[in-house]
Description:
Order of helices and strands of chain C: HEHEHEHEEHEHEHEHEHEHHEH
Low-confidence stretches of chain C: 11-21
Largest interface: A-B, 70 and 76 residues
Helix content of chain C: 40-55%
Protein name (chain C): Tripartite-type tricarboxylate transporter, receptor component TctC
Shape of chain A: globular
Radius of gyration of chain A: 22 Å
CATH topology of the largest domain in chain C: D-Maltodextrin-Binding Protein, domain 2
Oligomer: heterotrimer
Number of strands of chain C: 11
Pfam families (chain C): TctC (PF03401)
CATH superfamily of the largest domain in chain C: Bordetella uptake gene, domain 1
Shape of chain C: globular
Radius of gyration of chain C: 22 Å
Strand order of the largest sheet of chain C: 2-1-3-10-4-11
Keywords (chain C): Receptor, Signal
Number of domains of chain C: 2
Mean pLDDT of chain A: 81
Organism (chain C): Devosia enhydra
Distance between the termini of chain C: 67 Å
Order of helices and strands of chain A: HHHHHHHHHEEHHHHHHHHHHHHHH
Structural class of chain A: mainly alpha
Number of strands of chain A: 2
Number of domains of chain A: 1
Number of helices of chain A: 23
Family (chain C): Belongs to the UPF0065 (bug) family.
CATH architecture of the largest domain in chain C: 3-Layer(aba) Sandwich
Amino acid sequence: MDAMLAAMGLVFNVETLLTILLASIFGLFVGALPGLTATMATALLVPITFYLPPIPAIATIIASTAMAITAGDLTGTLLRIPGTPASAAYVEDSYRMAQKGEAGMAIGIGIIGSVLGGLFGFVVLLFSAPALAKFALNFSSFEYFWLAALGLTCAALISSGGMAKGALSLLLGLFIAQIGVDPLMGTARFTFQVTELAGGISFIPAMIGMFALAEIMRTGRNFNVNVPQMNIRNPFKGVMAMLWKYRKNQVRGSIIGSLLGALPGVGGDLAAWITYSLAKRTSKTPEKFGTGHPEGLVEAGATNNAALSSSWIPAMVFGIPGDAVTAIAVGVLVMKGMEPGPSLLTVNPQNFYAVMLVFVIANILMLPLGWLAAKGSRWIFEVPRALLNAGILLFCIVGSFAINNTMFGVGIMVAMGIIAYVLERYRFAIAPIILGIVLGPLLENNFLTSMIITNGNLMGFFSRPVAAFLGVATLLIWGIAIFGALWSYRKTRLAAA
Amino acid sequence: MPKPGSRADVVLGLIFAALGVAVFTLALSYRNMPGMPVGAGLFPRIVGGGMVVFGAVLALQGWFTRPALVAADAPAEDEHARTGTLDWTYVGLVLGAIVATIFLMPVLGFLLTSFVFCIFIVRLSGGSWLSAIIFSPVMTYLTYLAFYNGFRVPLPRGLLG
Amino acid sequence: MNIFAKAALAALAVTISAGAALAQYPDRPITMIVPFAAGGGTDATGRIIATLLEEKLGQPVNVENRTGAGGLVGHEALKAAAPDGYTIGILTTELSMFQPVGSGQITYEDFTLIGLYNADPSAVYVKADSPYQTIADLVAAVKDNPTPLRASGATYGGLNHVTWVSLVQAVGAPVEKAMWVPTDGASASLQLLASGAIDVSVSQLPEAQALVDAGEIRPLVYLGSERNAKAADVPAITEALGFEFAISGWRGLGAPKGIPDDIRDRLVTVFEEIVASPQFNEVMDGRNYGVVFEGGADFDAYLKTRAEAFNAAISSAGIKAN
């Protein structure tokens, strides 16, 4: 308890609170600009943290990432440019809601759902950090492989358009992920001697092209933005009632998010997809998913931020960063003499609790900032469409450029936009392509590493208990899906005959 | 159950299958490292193979449900309402403008290219000259300020650098 | 005005503008290419150097992460940049390996070298409950047959892989039988070691420190010639096995080949001050990175030695990229 009080003293002072506020506003802007990622926000902040005392330094990183990731939902809802791979899971629903005049509701669900999920993640972190970290440490390449396979299975099978199209979308994403020099052996694949292809195709320009550019191509001059919006005075009106209606999804999303988030390298991206598909599977109205239905949004949004909170567990307890953001944060912790590791919990628990408190404050700050952002975003529906189209296209170009600072990214964006337009016209789902690009390396690297460990023996993939469980689950889902498809096909053939 | 079934599915299925064959063939040239049971070519071969299988499935589905073309397209009407018919001139010019930007921006610099690009798109999308002239410099400058000065993205300076 | 006056005037103009160019360098922002992603160790050190350079030179130094192909993309981008002093970049260990491994043709000779700022030997780790208590136990097992020992530490052909084969070779075991499990990074390998899927991991000290503190893994040997102050209980290879070990990771600052001499000298001087500065050392020390400075021609000589050591290890182990 003394440690908690000491932690409060560390956090509740003008300097730290002001830093958190400024970092949150910074994160909001970065997240709302297409092409700028939470990673970029953190990397930009590192030189600043150099001049700050330890707690404010780490607070800037935590607050800005939490805000940047949530703000990615804003552009997804308003312009169909998802900010993170996780928000690509439910962008169809949030964007369609905005097109129906429910932008405030969609953003509200995103923000409040995220806050609740984030706070839930905090509670989990508070009580179970060491145990959860220990559990996560037992995951080897075998478990990671099956987890990635399970996530991709969910994405392919829930997508609209049928199994064959879902699988093809996914395979296309996996293929795109293979372009470049492979990270295990250093073999150049599908690069055709083009140096820039050797670096691979980043998912940011791909995502901007496939969602935003394809949308402009589709709607052309009739891009429908003059949508009368409801609840202009209070954009969050009715959100709590909606969350209560889907409270089961909210709780389940938070739990799964907290558990999966604790696995380094998997984090919120995969978790949001798994819970979105779970929400669709267990929904009474699965056919409404993807048309502006809030149910999946509630669950996946909660998952996203719960996972974000718990992704700090392996980083803080064992110094194993799961992604670029936590890697930067680990660096800042070390630099400030707060070496991650079990001693962070035992020797200096006030520092650990102070970091936890920063989470809570950053999450609560999201409410007023998010409310203002939602209220302010109304103007976007009043801008003449000619100007908006020009602005969006300019952002598409600059955002794609910014990822590697080359025009090559813009070219990728155009190519992906055209592919997505054609595929979507024939009812292929786009989201599995993005997930394939994001998770492709995770799937392949862990597959190859495991194959090398077992010397090519496939049975080795089932030799560890958790891996065996995940593996059997994945294969069962595929089996049921294929059998189901064949069965219903046979039935229609018989009926036709 | 979704209703596949159109000539397009047959064509797209075959395109995917062909891509799968190409991926598989290219992947055969990636050798294993000495002493390794598997190599960089394994996973591309699996993905290529998967594309061939599912591409074939899609093509067959499309082929067998082809007679039901009219019936299958009917329920997708809401989809078409959303999709709308493609405005070829507009899309062509937008894509052309982006491609032109790719080549012009490194030469002319961000400020000039973006200014011209914005005017072009605003006019193309049915905005007035007045709004184009007012909007473009403001949008260009704000973007420059945010990305170049704020986030240190090294946008090309070109002529003005 | 006669022809001589014109010539004199022209000469004067040239002298003034040349002098002005030097006096003014840098008169616009400088770009620093970092060949690895934001968030990694190279990125972190690069950003601190950029911040300090900005203070010293009075112009913004913008960090550009040009990632991919194990650093090849970023190194190639720096090589191809205009040699005007306005593009500089971080060079890393990988530069010593592209040519011997065959993944690229680029070497240290393609750059104007400014200064070395970091050199770090790796260490060898086993899981806490591993049967190997000391490095001698492990060496005995390796000599017996290296194949059943699954070792990992990052990419195939990467620094840690080369370190492992070089170690296997140095103790006199058949190097072609050494078994390497490639992963996409040291953290992934350490996670594999902690989960019990592999037997040995080669990694740098800071990356593994938290897992060591947690009692999940144990260091057996530090591959430097003296013990590291941050891990004083880990024996150095020279005392444990009685031989010197030349393979280690390094990082330095460079520019495209052929930048003006005066600009290079200015950068070398400024960079030496930075590496000696307390701010820089505080950051490097906090992250457990060893600070070593070799400026200009000394850096060339240092990299020449590395090139020979890496070449020898890589060719004898038969590591080749496709």
